[in-house]
Amino acid sequence: MAAHAKSLVEDGGRVADLRRDAYGHGLLTVAREVLLAGADSVRVDDEDAVRMLSAEGLSASATTEPDMDPAVLYGFPAETGTHQRPAMRLTGRVMSTKPLRLGEAVSYGYTHRAERDTTVALVTGGYAQAVVRALGNRAHVELNGRAHPIVGRVAMDVCVIDLESPDASADEGDEVTYFGGAGPARGFLAEWMSATGLTAAELACAAGLHATRTEED
């Protein structure tokens, strides 16, 4: 995000739009980044947010119109189909794996049946963490540098991914990336948009509200 903010400032941007908790990315964290990059101020939702940032020595306004494109700042998918590196990365963890035989089904309602012998992994992340139910059978995750499909219905706190080989393996605790980062999942937010009909901003806001947030370098 620091690189995105710097490029916007270099293009003449002075005020960043940080309403709705900075589109789910965290108000205080993003305010520090964009002001450090050279922005004059940030636009926030209300005077309470202005006072909170002012107490941290950060310039904010609830009325100034922003002139920095949030799609660029947060790394949302571009209409051209090109993808900046998203500022947010949504992750889960492998809980377990098991073989799935030809014709066997997974998850509620059996909306997916294996077309061949394979291995599936149960991973953390469900609709309670903003992994939208519509993503079942329509989206992918990144695991160990490769993209794998989400299969079956997304449950409240977990979903199932197909490792696409009966000989595949994954260790308990291995990290799964739903979208973001620099690998295959870099452009997966666009896949989420297509599957759900929601905008990148709506999806990022939901993830920011429901998932545990940490900062990465």
TrEMBL record:
Its cofactor is pyridoxal 5'-phosphate. The lineage of its organism: Bacteria, Bacillati, Actinomycetota, Actinomycetes, Micrococcales. Keywords: Isomerase, Pyridoxal phosphate. Gene3D superfamilies: Lyase, Ornithine Decarboxylase, Chain A, domain 1. The keyword Ribosomal protein does not apply. SMART domains: Ala_racemase_C. The keyword Isomerase applies. This is Alanine racemase C-terminal domain-containing protein. It holds the Pfam family Ala_racemase_C. Residues 87-216 form the Alanine racemase C-terminal domain. GO terms for molecular function: alanine racemase activity; pyridoxal phosphate binding. InterPro entries: Ala_racemase (IPR000821), Ala_racemase/Decarboxylase_C (IPR009006), Ala_racemase_C (IPR011079). GO terms for cellular component: cytosol.
